[in-house]
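Module 6 notes. Inverse folding takes a fixed backbone as the condition and produces residue identities as the prediction. Think of it as a translation problem where the source language is geometry and the target language is the twenty amino acids. Below is one complete input and output pair. Work through it position by position during the lab.
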């Protein structure tokens, strides 16, 4: 029996109030005043009197509702498994799709890392799986502690063609060396795209594995780092050693 077969409308309303991601796709919330239908975890806050529930997206569409542009209930939901692991630079959160590593982030607070994961992948089913990801966690922790080592894991970073070109160029920068944003731009055949390179570094979803910490300002200054300049300095010091 599926959730949509035994949940009452009152229970569905409570699931929506708490934005229950685990029930996304088990039923759909249609809002009469806006004409859209949503997932249980949608950030929208309609009034109860304006809401009706549907077991399927087809039922909601047949009733005249269109897909919400915020939670995108019409998109297929992929599953991402995730877990955190301690490293020499704090916690690392690792999320993996069926194809490979989708996200590796660094931080000090597990709850904050999970909230960031949820923000990035609003339409995905997120499943904690520390046991199933044990080998990945060990490999990522080793990579953070030894960033010059080779990581033998499949990658599944999602981005634009330009971002993917930048990320590939970053992975080609030898450990213990650095490159400027302008140098990376020239290496991808876009010599005037230094700003776009900087933006791609900021959007890098695979901390350390795609070594955006090896990109510095033209004068050699560290510039920014999504996971903290001190972590960037520590990574470069480890590689230099």
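Target side of the pair, the amino acids:
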């Amino acid at each position: 029996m599926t959730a949509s077969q035994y949940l009452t409308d009152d229970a569905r309303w409570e699931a929506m109030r708490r934005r229950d991601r685990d029930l996304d796709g088990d039923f759909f919330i249609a809002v009469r005043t806006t004409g859209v239908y949503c997932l249980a975890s949608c950030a929208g806050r309609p009034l109860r009197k304006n809401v009706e529930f549907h077991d399927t997206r087809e039922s909601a569409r047949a009733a005249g509702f269109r897909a919400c542009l915020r939670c995108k209930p019409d998109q297929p939901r992929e599953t991402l498994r995730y877990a955190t692991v301690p490293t020499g630079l704090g916690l690392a959160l690792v999320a993996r799709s069926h194809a490979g590593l989708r996200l590796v982030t660094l931080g000090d607070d597990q709850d904050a890392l999970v909230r960031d994961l949820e923000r990035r992948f609003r339409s995905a089913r997120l499943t904690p799986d520390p046991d199933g990801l044990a080998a990945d966690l060990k490999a990522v922790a080793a990579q953070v502690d030894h960033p010059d080592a080779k990581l033998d894991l499949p990658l599944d970073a999602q981005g634009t063609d330009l971002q993917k070109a930048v990320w590939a160029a970053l992975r080609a920068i030898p450990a213990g060396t650095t490159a400027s944003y302008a140098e990376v731009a020239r290496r991808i055949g876009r010599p005037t795209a230094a700003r776009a390179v900087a933006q791609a570094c900021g959007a890098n979803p695979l901390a350390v594995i795609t070594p955006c910490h090896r990109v510095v300002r033209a004068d050699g200054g560290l510039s920014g780092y999504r996971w903290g300049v001190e972590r960037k300095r520590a990574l470069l010091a480890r590689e230099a050693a």
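Reference fact for the lab report: The beta strands are 28-31, 36-38, 51-54, 66-67, 79-87, 90-96, 101-107, 125-128, 179-180, 215-216.
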